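Appendix B, record 7
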Amino acid sequence: MAAETRITAVLGPTNTGKTHYAIERMLAHRTGVIGLPLRLLAREVYDRIVAARGPAVAALVTGEERIVGARAQYWVCTVEAMPTDIGADFLAVDEIQLCADPERGHVFTDRLLNARGLMETLFLGSDTMRGAIAALVPKVQFLRRERFSTLTYSGSKKISRMPARSAIVGFSVENVYAIAELIRRQKGGAAVVMGALSPRTRNAQVAMYQNGEVDYLVATDAIGMGLNLDIGHVGFSATAKFDGWRMRSLFPHELAQIAGRAGRHMAPGTFGVTGEAAPLAPEVIECIENHRFSPIQRLNWRSSALDFGTVDRLVASLEVSPQDEWLMRGREADDLRALKTLADLPAIRDRARHSRDLRLLWDVCRIPDFQGISAQEHANLLQRIFGFLQEGHVPDDWLAAQIRRIDRTEGDIDTLSKRLAYIRTWTYVAQRSGWVQDESHWRDETRAVEDRLSDALHGALTQRFVDRRTSVLLRRLKQKEGLVAEVNDKGEVTVEGEFVGRLEGFRFHQDGSATPDEAKTLKQAAYEALRPEFHLRADRFYNAPDTELDFTEQGGLMWGSSAMGKLVKGADVMKPQVEAFVDEEAGFDVAEKVRRRLQHFIDRKVATLFEPLLNLQRDETLTGLARGFAFRLVEALGVLPREGVADEVKALDQDMRGALRKHGVRFGQYTIFQPLLLKPAPTRLRLVLWSLFEGLDEFPESPPPGLVTVPNIPDVPKGYYTLSGYHPAGARAIRIDMLERLADILRTMDSRAGFEANPDMLSITGMTLEQFADLMAGLGYKGEPGEREKVRSEPVAQPTEEGKTANPITEEEAALQTVTETEVFYTFTWAPRPRAPRGDRPERGKRPGGAPRDGGGEKREGKPRGDRGGKPHKGKPGGKPGGKGKREEQGGGRTFETRPPKKDRIDPDNPFAAALMGLRDKI
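Structure tokens (predicted):
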């Protein structure tokens, strides 16, 4: 070693520019080596060297990475990977206070005692090392550097109150993730920095923070090791950590090392606590603010003079006790623990008998346990690698299989982190000289896999812990810039390119992932873009044809797939009003235009589908009882059960009936109706209008079109079937027009003597004979089942040309070939159910044969009344039979009160599975 070597200890608190000073000094020499505590920091310094002098003269050497320029002069390394035998003019070791670290301290102490540059040596670190360095390093010079900015304690703050440009420190992966998740919800997102991250992932996360995409950084104590970040405040979420052996409180100088990241160069910084961390003690605060700490008294040490005679002698040399009072044996490191584990294996002792094998075994034991598996599993892996290396090198096919299992970028954060840890093992192996056959190939291969996994991990961290939409918004607001919002043709609303919600019709539905703090601002920014869109869309909607609009069976009004409004009760059942769904921010003009268009649509729809009924309502030629009956039919929306208006029908003379028939009114035996109003479209609208006028919370739906009969559900009011165009009878309800066709046939039958069902009856109803019998029972007929023999003979052979039959048979033989079957038939007779007395009711005569007269309403006696059980119901179609109506004379005609009795209204607690809408599932 040259006698003129100058050794300098540059000591001081954080933010004093020590690392920057070391880089300048190294570049002032022809060659240099600098050792740094973290792979992350080594990469940062390497990038600075490359930027200053180019990649050809720079080298990066860590346990897992080796980049050596063609004319490498400046070597940037982790402390463990420092080459100390290349004879560099300059040598520096950063964060020298780590000599006291229980895990890695022996490595730093060895560099302090033994590593020197030919011309200049620098040791950089805390002032707490002054006494130890002075005692152990002869002729050392000290250079004190003061902090550029002040560092002040700011007390305890909630995470939600953290100022922008803050770093929140946790001491476990779980704690870091939990804090980052909380910040994402409250502040838009955070970058995550941990020592276990690859440099590529860490740099990508730091770049997000440095570029202002996020204003918060969540990190472990790795940020305390020289990473230069734009941090204004450091918040400790805890002041204790697990150091590998036990939970312990951080020493004041350790807290200061982390807190010192706040305030870069001349900008002041603050530190404090957050979360569940207790406030710092006043004496600790005073130490950190004034950079005064207890000096380090003992340094961890392990002998570097190793004996490779035998395994036992190697272990003993590693456990030699130091002779200096400033030194002490450090905690048993992972490499020594792995060596002891392997030394206990007979197979290893047999194969490690020579110095060369022992050196190889020791190199293998120094492979870090990146995977964090159990000590035994790690030892098994080392044993296998040692076996490969004794035979020459790690086999390519075996190494390729190990890497192939890891080279997958799918999975969550934990999965990707584990794969990154696994690839670090093979990256380390590939970096060792002579361990693999094609070193260049495997170094590139492992580096490529690590880069892919690093990018995937960065993406996963960003996706989980960063809400880009909110972070971009907050950044723009902080910079007081106008927000650019857009609406695409799908109604998706974006602010600064980030999705914030969707415009459905004229209502903006904001994305629910926004936090309360940003939701208001997001909404305000979105409406800035939506205001012109509202007017353009209102013009398009107003000019849209009716074919693009529709109503739902629950009274909604739709434009395509967008809900535009709903129907509300009007003054008249056929004059509903509309309520438009328009955001208040769209303005009155837009809302009114949408409302008018919806009103025009429903008015035209009613006018088209209920044209026969409206013509009946407007006919001024109808007078007296005919006009009153027309009013009654209009109120019932064109379908009126005859049993409820039997007296009114009887009072109409033939001229009055004729005037009503001109409007298509049919006086059926069971129902008075206009056939055109039984079509599916008017039926669907009739149910909506009636339900709306009755104030129902949920509207009954019409049965599917085309069905002649539907199930008769006991819990469904009879009026629902009438409004739907059906008449309940037995277990089924039959369509009104088909029922009247059946009634026309039944009137030709002798219902007193009895008759059988003919094919025409079954064809009209589409029923089996048993189902038809149940229907007839519901209409007031009694069906008597019976059985009889159905005789069918086999066909007789045809005559031949000569007039003779082929294969003639005798009569006895023909009788044997006759097939006898049994068939079931029903005989139906008119048998109405008994009804309550009706006072002085005139006695009705009987037609000969007892058959009912025609359904025209003219004088007829013995007419079947269907499913009646009491007085005729004079209410509107929504009521049940037996209710009492009310009528009053008004002018020349009658006005009928048609609202059903309160007891016949829908019970809102009755599940609507019992309503007609349930028919679809039962048909």
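Remarks on this record: The first strand starts at residue 6 and ends at 11. The two ends are 101 Å apart (CA to CA).
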